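Example record

Each entry pairs one chain with its bound ligand, guanosine-5'-monophosphate.
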Amino acid sequence: MNFLEERILKDGKVKAGGVLKVGGFLNHLIDITLMNKIGEEFKRRFEGQEINKILTIEASGIAIAAITANYFNVPVLFAKKTQTVNLDDEIYSAQAYSFTHKRTNTIVVQKQFLSKGDRVLIIDDFLANGEALMALTSIVEQAGAEVCGIGIAIEKGMQPGGDKLRSKGFKLESIAIIDTMDSDNNSIKFREQ
Ligand code: 5GP
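Structure tokens for the complex follow.
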């Protein structure tokens, strides 16, 4: 069992409806020592990919992406879920249905920050149905840039996102893949990697 799987077993809470709560260490209160290990692990798994930018989605992807970016020494771009006055009209956009919030978000990235020639590593905390990731890959494609890899902290393998992205040929690496989880007894089973 790896360091993240151990932590999920220790502090993760399985909720009814197929939701895993990891707010005590990953996406509410953030354990920076754990984040650094995640960043190091992504650096190891995507070694040699010549990445020049990391892309994620607000809000909970930002912490993991920022710490990972430190290991690659590249900037982090995050897709916004709300269109603010700070964004001009020159944007790439895509739609993603949120598994946790049960609504469709339009996510946007300002065109000046992503262009042809960029070699992008996409990072996020969770992969469930793959909606958020598909929207991010669409934005990279709209820019004419290249997705060099996708790094996920926790993939819920019982939902279709992972299979969908792998079948499209993306190099997808998840540090922990959950095959089954049960809210009755808080049990979680991980896929052997
Ligand atoms: P997807 O688009 O793959 O269905 O879901 C990805 C997004 O939903 C992630 O960015 C994450 O914020 C959220 N998410 C999906 N499943 C879970 C879950 O079980 N627990 C938590 N905390 N977030 C989840």
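Residues 2 and 113 are 35 Å apart (CA to CA).
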